[in-house]
Amino acid sequence: MKALALFSGGLDSLLAIKLIQEAGVEVEGVNFLQPFLGPEEEKRVVNHLQNLISQLGVELHIVRLGDDYLRMLENPKHGYGKAANPCLDCHIFFLRKAGELMQELGAAFLVTGEVVGQRPKSQYRGAFPKIDAESGLAGLIVRPLSAGLLPPTIPEQKDWISLDHCPSIQGRQRKTQLELAQKYGLEYEAPAGGCLLTNVEYGRKVKDLIKADGQLTIDSLRLLRIGRHFRLSASYKGIVGRNHRENQVLFRYFYQHRRAEGFYLFSALGAPGPLALGLGNPAADDLEKLARLTIRYGDHAPETVVTVKFLTSGSAHRLTTLSIQPAPKETPFDGDRFRIT
After folding, report:
1. Residue 91 to residue 93: CA distance in whole angstroms
2. How many CB atoms within 10 Å of residue 25?
């Protein structure tokens, strides 16, 4: 008999797989890659996941999420948490995708590392029946770390497996998991910052993008991780680099999209400073606003005229020069009123 396990890379999912293996079941894993990472970072993450799961001799399937995931993120049925985190909808989405893969692989049921009471939005006891029903997999999702606290699943009822050896963990304490990890000799990493969508600043940028553009793209989501973001008007935003690496990313992004309409790359001459990327359809004074922001984060001498050059993409591809007289040093900076984060 075969089971498919959702593998996050955390200790709980490692232990869940090990416990099901001890029940005599062959296990394969699946990880859903959310579309926030650039290619190089994604490659590092996949290699890390493969190394972790190799301790258990388990094959790992990597599924890169695409447009259907983005459509869910734009309008989640169960709403968001404190940021742009649709935890219930996201988890249901993963389970549905895993259910499709389960059928392809000939697996009989799914396994997760969920623990009763560990997460307030998606791992409390009352949420599990709702999640299971909406995923279309009611009775076929086994949670071995909290097996003693949950109703028997179909694999248990039909005597496919016994979970008598499994613990009854609940809450956020980690003592039992750490003891099991030592027992099985598992290497693992301490929990990191979690899903990027739970980050309040990132969530603010996601919601701004949905409001302004109507829909998300993988490119636009990845760009949200770079620079300082400013909503200059309803149809135009600016991103100002914070360091050399981010300047490089903004330059590459403009170069890759140089044949499309609606991209602008700014650079202030005469002193070290950032690049800035404009996106969308600027109103009359939006270009000057972004030019001033580019100067604001540079090392230019106060109250001196600064030359700012910007490239325009698309059919009107051209280089334009602006001469900007910065506001007096004592004048309060008004860029914060445009700041998304």
Report:
1. 5
2. 21
Q: Between the CA of residue 200 and those of 1, 72, 140, 231, 238, what are the distances in Å? A: 43, 19, 34, 17, 20
CA distance 204 to 222: 14
**What would the mean pLDDT of 318-337 be, rounded to a whole number?**
81
Domain positions in the chain are 2-184, 226-338
Q: What is the DSSP string of 19-88?
A: HHHHTT-EEEEEEEE-TTS-HHHHHHHHHHHHHHHGGGT--EEEEE--HHHHHHHHS-TT---SSS--HH
Structure tokens at 18: 């090990």
Class of domain 2-184: alpha beta
Query: What's the chain's length in residues?
Result: 341
Measured in degrees and rounded to the nearest 5, phi and psi for residue 328 equal -50, 150
Q: At what angle do helices 11-22 and 39-53 cross, to 10 degrees?
A: 40
pTM: 0.89
Where b means 16+ CB within 10 Å and e means fewer, 9-23 reads bbbbbbbbbbbbbeb
Higher pLDDT, residue 323 or 194 = 323
Q: Are strands 26-33 and 2-6 parallel, antiparallel or unpaired?
A: parallel
Q: Give the distance from CA 222 to its chain's centroid.
A: 9
